[in-house]
Design a protein that fits this description.
alpha/beta, Pyruvate Kinase, Chain: A, domain 1, 5-stranded mixed sheet, 7 helices, 5 strands, elongated
Length: 293
């Protein structure tokens, strides 16, 4: 059995660690709430965009829309945007994403968001085209920089697809790796359905919009500008979800660490009491034996 001094030292050290993990849990909880609020606010814009598109599609046929993002070509190199956290201590979130990334074909070229992804992919994968940072609070302008890099690589045929591997936020306890293809788009109608699905709206049940929209210069010109807007909006929403997933995973991991520390402290206290009781019993036995001599 360990000495009482050693046990006291361990209890003190674990208490200090539990205070740190508890503080990190509270910080992650606050950041998670902000990330979730940001994602919900962004959905309002997406909803208004979907309503406008739904009205325009009653005036213009999708078949009349021509855009390079809609052209499917042979795939020589897959382009994957890997979205990971900048820091660790978020459970198995980063490990699950890396496991999925390293299982992709050798023809995959990566663009990485986050320091953890950069550290691993720079060692394990040679086709690393670029790296971006994404702070806890980011703006749409930063997303546009990533989109412009992806579009340039796509149009210059460095990559033939644009896909995003990110932690999909299901709830506070569950975040799972998801691979979503952004380019080439099948057609704008499918992208509109995906946008409805993202917001939990059944697009097939939407009634025809009978409002009279005045569109300048015309509906066809507006719709031809939408693929790039879809790309920016979708990536922005994905990054918001990734941040919510990161902070949720870190909050859960730190709560588990705090609970485990408290359990370990209780076990050490029990061990300390046993050692103390054994010491007292030994002293009593020695006193009794000395008196009987």
């Amino acid at each position: 059995m360990k000495g009482m001094r050693e046990i006291r030292t361990r209890i003190k050290a674990i208490k200090n660690t539990a205070q740190i993990t508890r503080a990190m849990e509270l910080v992650a909880s606050s950041k998670m709430k902000k990330a979730q609020d940001g994602a919900l606010r962004s959905r309002m814009y997406a909803y208004e965009l979907a309503e406008l598109l739904h009205a325009l599609t009653q005036q213009v046929s999708w078949d009349d829309i021509q855009h390079p993002f809609l052209n499917v070509r042979d795939v020589r190199y897959r382009g994957v945007l890997l979205v990971m956290a900048d820091k660790g201590l978020c459970g198995s979130l980063n490990q699950n994403l890396l496991k999925e990334a390293l299982q992709l074909p050798t023809c995959t070229r990566f663009i990485v968001v986050g320091q953890k992804g950069l550290q691993v992919m720079s060692r394990n994968h040679s086709d690393l085209l670029g790296h971006f940072t994404c702070p806890d609070i980011f703006h749409f302008k930063q997303v546009q920089e990533i989109v412009h890099f992806l579009v340039d690589a796509y149009q210059s045929q460095k990559i033939d697809t644009v896909e995003v591997l990110f932690p999909r936020f299901k709830n506070t306890l569950v975040q799972e790796p998801a691979l979503r293809r952004l380019l080439p788009m099948v057609n704008l109608e499918e992208e509109l359905k995906n946008l409805y699905h993202w917001m939990g709206i059944d697009g097939s049940k939407l009634a025809n919009n009978d409002r009279d929209f005045i569109v300048e210069p015309n509906g066809k010109t507006i719709l031809e500008q939408l693929p790039l807007l879809f790309l920016k909006k979708t990536l922005y929403q994905i990054l918001l979800e990734a941040k919510a997933s990161e902070h949720s995973a870190r909050m859960v991991a730190m709560k588990a660490a705090t609970d485990n520390a408290e359990t370990l402290i209780e076990n050490l206290k029990l061990e300390y009491n046993k050692a103390r009781q054994a010491s007292i019993t030994q002293e009593i036995v020695e006193i009794t034996a000395s008196q009987s001599l």
